[in-house]
Amino acid sequence: MRKNIKVGCCGFCLMREKYFEKFNLVELQNTFYQPPQKFSSAEKLRRLAPQHFEFTLKAWQIITHPANLPTYRRLKENIGRRENYGFFKGSKEVFSAWERIFKIAKILKVKVVVFQTPPSFKENKENIDNLYKFFTKIERDNLKFVWEERANFSYLTLKKIYKDLHLIIGIDPFKKKPLDCEFYYFRLHGKGSYNYKYTLKELKELKAILDRPSYILFNNIYMKESALKFKKLLNKDA
Questions:
Q1: Burial 88-107 (b: 16+ CB within 10 A, else e)
Q2: In Å, how far are 39, 69, 151, 163, 182 from 86, measured between CA atoms?
Q3: What span, in angstroms and rounded, lies between the C-alpha atoms of 108 and 170?
Q4: Nearest of 39, 5, 7 to residue 26 by alpha carbon
Q5: Pairing, β 25-28 against β 5-10
Q6: What are phi and psi of 167, to 5 degrees?
Q7: Domain range spanning residue 100?
Q8: What is the CATH number of the domain that holds 185?
Q9: Could you give the CA distance from residue 54 to residue 143 in angstroms, rounded to a whole number?
């Protein structure tokens, strides 16, 4: 398999020990809903994983999502005032949430943190201003940041944001055209619904566009099967 192409799933689709045998990448999802309050759990996870194994993680919803969305049903703790949550607001709540994620990322030796915004995060001045203020203020260290937006921002706006903030634009390549970024970060949700199986033809189409380092994360009901099938396809290049 090409060394610069990493394949995994959004969340553990197998028992961890089995997952570590089959994949070298996972995008952690619990950090979006409710990141651990005790850093010892992140330390344990890093110890359990093979040295070469890579974690990426999804940033806490308090940073990206307003508190009235259904994803908050899985939130187990509140930080300050809920009306100050989401949309990269310049609130102490949002920045406190980032501090937690940043510490977990460092413990897990994460290289990439994913920020996903809901469809209600529209392309307007207030949201874009919040985006710029947040990413120019937070500590980055050596982390790479990926932003998956779901409100169909214009290509020109996304291109400018990538240039100005070095914010990799994450997409589902079967739904949107990839932006010319340093690397690709693809989150494959399935065509039409999460109950979708990618065909071999579609996976070959995906392979054909990988002209740079890439993270390929499958994220639907059949993600394990699709990811293994895609790994096998890539292995033909080895």
A1: bbebebbbebbebbbebbeb
A2: 23, 10, 15, 23, 27
A3: 21
A4: 7
A5: parallel
A6: -105, 105
A7: 5-235
A8: 3.20.20.410
A9: 13
Q: Using CA atoms, how far apart are residues 61 and 103, in angstroms rounded to an integer?
A: 16
Listed as ranges, residues in the chain with pLDDT below 50 are 1
Q: Which of 125, 178, 126, 124 is nearest to 148 (CA)?
A: 178
Please report, to the nearest 10 degrees, the dihedral formed by the alpha carbons of residues 183, 189, 191, 192 taken in order: -140
> What pLDDT shows up at residue 180?
96
pTM: 0.95
Q: Which DSSP string corresponds to the chain?
A: --TTEEEEEES-SS-HHHHHHH-SEEEE-HHHH---SSTHHHHHHHHHS-TT-EEEEEPPHHHHS-TTSGGGGG-----S-GGG-STT-SSHHHHHHHHHHHHHHHHTT-SEEEEE--TTS-SSHHHHHHHHHHHHHS--TT-EEEEE--S---HHHHHHHHHHH-EEE-B-TTTSPPP--SSEEEEE--SSSSS----HHHHHHHHHT--S-EEEEE-STTHHHHHHHHHHHHHTT-
**Both tokens assigned to 185:** 């970060």
Do 158 and 117 meet the contact criterion of CB atoms below 8 Å apart?
Answer: no
pLDDT the model gives residue 103: 97
pLDDT at 59: 98
Number of domains in the chain: 1
Query: What distance in Å separates the CA atoms of residue 212 and residue 214, rounded to the nearest whole number?
Result: 6
Q: Give, in order, the Cα–Cα distances in Å from 43 to each of 1, 38, 139, 226, 229.
A: 29, 9, 21, 30, 31
Nearest to 135 by CA among 126, 146, 151, 120: 146
